[in-house]
Amino acid sequence: MASVTIPQQNRTITDSGEIAAFLQPHGIWYRRTDVAGRLGPRAGDAEILAAYDREITELKERGGYVTADVINVTADTPNLDVMLNKFNKEHRHDEDEVRFIVHGRGVFHINPDSGDPVFAIEVEAGDMINVPAGTRHWFDLCADRTIRAIRLFLEQAGWTPHYTESGVDESYVPLCLGPTDIPPGEGFKPSVPI
Ligand SMILES: [Fe+2]
Description:
This protein has about 190 residues and is an alpha+beta fold. The chain is built from 4 helices and 11 strands. The strands form 2 sheets. Strands 1, 2, 3, 4, 6, 7, 8, 9 and 10 form a 9-stranded antiparallel beta sheet that branches.
């Protein structure tokens, strides 16, 4: 189950319907689907894409996306920090960032152009979400540094990050409410502006 946190308001939303309603004015759609038991832990990319073909087709029809691939990251992934450093600075894309999480978890921070406060969306297996083109955002993994997600694209070149260099991301650290193998206090700090 995803959660939304608005640090400046000291507010957290965990109900799926309330999350969808909160995100909708920001052009973000959110939906959950049941993924429990549908794939083994060692499933390869092709197997993942085949297993979720129905959802992928639905997402393509919804947003006009034409291609899908799989991103599969664990704490053992070589050069993981280099990879994460590309995503954890505030940026925009020329096209939607669409993710269907099938394993693990992560946190999107959104900095709305509307002037509304920054909010964090924690996503986990079963969560489908889009970050609309042009939205200021950044992404972090949770303490277990594991995520497997299906990505959908109009064209992959459109997903190149355009960094804002605002430094806003430096004021937040990712809060992950969900379970983790790492004891409290050894992972990330609470997500509060500093
Ligand atoms: Fe992004």
